[in-house]
Design a protein that fits this description.
The complex is a heterodimer of chains A (about 240) and B (about 240).
Chain A lengths: L12 H35 L3 E6 L3 E4 L1 E3 L5 E3 L8 E3 L10 E6 L4 E16 L2 E9 L9 E9 L5 E14 L3 E10 L6 E8 L19 E2 L18 E7 L1
Antiparallel strand pairs in A: 1-14, 2-12, 2-13, 3-4, 5-11, 6-11, 7-10, 7-12, 7-14, 8-9, 8-11
Chain B lengths: L13 H33 L5 E6 L3 E5 L11 E3 L10 E6 L5 E16 L2 E10 L4 E10 L5 E14 L3 E10 L6 E8 L21 E2 L18 E7 L1
Antiparallel strand pairs in B: 1-12, 2-10, 2-11, 3-9, 4-9, 5-8, 5-10, 5-12, 6-7, 6-9
Classes of the chains: A mainly beta (about 240), B mainly beta (about 240).
């Protein structure tokens, strides 16, 4: 394909200039088309591989029942049970979420997440999900993208390295928020059990009874029986968005 | 762009027109040079998309612990093995391009905890030719002294390999000495198909791990016809 017209040797100068003008116009249009295309593709290619992530090694959990001094058991930490709640990244209860504003062309993202949760002496199943939200705080999602169920057992503890993954199309001029949440049951057989996020048992003692909280249990860094800082092994929950 | 081209009047003096023609050539040349550079850059980004490097292992081995023998419980990170040498479950990618490449990493470790209360740990690592290293993903697999339990542990990450850099990626295990144990341990790529415990079939524990032989019909892949693999895969995005 040619975008130019040849000028004949016997062509008048005035006519030649007209042909020259047409040729310039055609070439300019084509180069402009190439520039427009490369700019549009560059917008996505340059973003390609761009990653935003949030990681948490904040070790916390909830007890479902705790034993009184007289031996009776009573439920605590009800307000994190029987409903969806964000996976926290710190004692201030900041949620495990990422945000991304697509100020360019439509593009695709890869979403990856993981929650490490340990069920302790609790028969009921806990649930986890990857979801899209309207902002950085609202708990109710716009859309649920991936889900998981982790069953417990009243007689023993068990940890789940639960992986979440999805592709997601990002529209132009839109800000997206993605996060991970858990749903801890208020029903089911339990024996002073509960759930730990990012924590695990490293020996036979159980630190659960060493401190209490009203909304969640924060397992401190100096808690030698459970958690990352004292073992040298880092277990994390995370959510990650990568432009692909 | 199009409106920067000067339209030459057909009544213009030819000498003046030649200068305008040259100006227009220069404008086009500048634009084409820019386009060529941009296209070359884009080509650098997109050329290896879909390139895949992978390594899988069905090498069945175990580390064992009891009250007197914790040889395999090293309290340190060690590679997942793919054979009896032992060679590590690692892959590498050499980015020879002038642009960085983003790669998707996917891994899996199949591990069976038996008769051991301690938690074993696994991780996906990256080590660059420039000496930098990173832990990309981690997992914890809790055991129980009274029963066995298996984990198909999945690892995932994305990683940007700088231009002109080689990175090695690998899967590793960490077996702690702590925790109650009762003649237990961890099987990699192996599972129990009967009540027979193959650990006692072979007595060589000096290496810290014990390969379960192919004709061991109680645990592992070859005797059952069912393949359970650990693997690591890299795909250029």
């Amino acid at each position: 394909m040619s975008y130019v017209t040849s000028i004949y040797s016997n062509q008048y100068v005035g006519d030649s200039l007209s042909t020259i003008n047409n040729n310039f116009a055609n070439l300019s249009t084509q180069t402009s088309n190439v520039a427009t295309f490369t700019n549009s593709v560059s917008g996505n290619v340059i973003k390609k591989g761009y990653t935003v992530s949030t990681v948490s090694n904040f070790v916390y959990g909830t007890t479902l029942y705790q034993e009184k001094s007289n031996g009776d058991e009573y439920p605590i930490n009800y307000n994190l049970r029987g409903k969806w709640s964000d996976v926290y990244i710190n004692p201030q209860k900041n949620p495990l979420r990422v945000s991304f504003t697509n100020d360019g062309y439509v593009c695709k993202a890869l979403l990856q997440g993981k929650v490490y949760a340990r069920n302790i002496s609790m028969a009921a199943t806990s649930f986890y999900r990857l979801a899209r939200f309207s902002d950085s705080k609202t708990v109710t999602p716009l859309e649920v993208i991936d889900t998981a169920a982790c069953e417990g057992n009243i007689s023993y503890s068990h940890g789940y390295n639960t992986v979440f993954q999805s592709f997601y199309t990002l529209q132009p001029n839109t800000t997206y928020y993605f996060g991970l949440q858990h749903w801890w049951p208020s029903t089911g057989a339990q024996d002073e059990g509960g759930i730990q996020i990012n924590g695990w048992q490293t020996n036979t003692s159980d630190s659960w009874g060493q401190n209490t909280g009203t909304t969640y249990k924060y397992i401190y860094a100096n808690d030698k029986t459970i958690g990352y800082p004292n073992t040298g092994v880092n277990i994390e929950s995370y959510i990650r968005l990568t432009i692909i | 762009m199009a409106n920067t081209i000067y339209v030459i009047p057909d009544t213009e003096c030819i000498g003046t027109s030649l200068q305008h023609i040259n100006d227009n050539f220069n404008l086009l040349n500048t634009q084409i040079t820019t386009d060529t550079t941009n296209i070359a850059t884009l080509s650098g980004y997109v050329a290896p998309i879909g390139t895949t490097v992978s390594l899988s292992s069905n090498f069945v081995y175990t580390v064992h612990c009891d009250n007197t023998d914790t040889t395999g419980m090293t309290n340190s990170w060690q590679d997942i093995y793919i054979d009896s040498v032992p060679n590590p479950l690692r892959i590498s990618y050499n980015n020879t391009s002038f642009t960085p490449y983003t790669v998707l990493l996917q891994g899996k470790v199949y591990a069976r905890n038996y008769g051991m209360a301690a938690t074993s740990f696994y991780r996906l690592t990256a080590v660059g030719s420039d000496g930098t290293s990173a832990t990309l993903d981690t997992a914890a697999c809790e055991g129980n002294v009274n029963y066995s339990h298996t984990y198909n542990t999945v690892f995932q990450s994305v990683f940007t390999i700088p231009a002109n850099t080689t990175y090695k990626f690998g899967l590793q295990s960490y077996f702690p000495k702590t925790g109650a144990q009762a003649n237990g341990g961890v099987n990699i790529n192996g599972y129990q198909t009967s009540k027979k415990d193959s650990w006692n079939i072979n007595s060589n524990r000096s290496t810290g791990y014990q390969q379960l032989s192919a004709d061991d019909t109680s645990i592992g892949y070859p005797g059952t016809g069912v393949g359970v693999y650990s693997y690591l895969k890299l795909v250029v995005l």
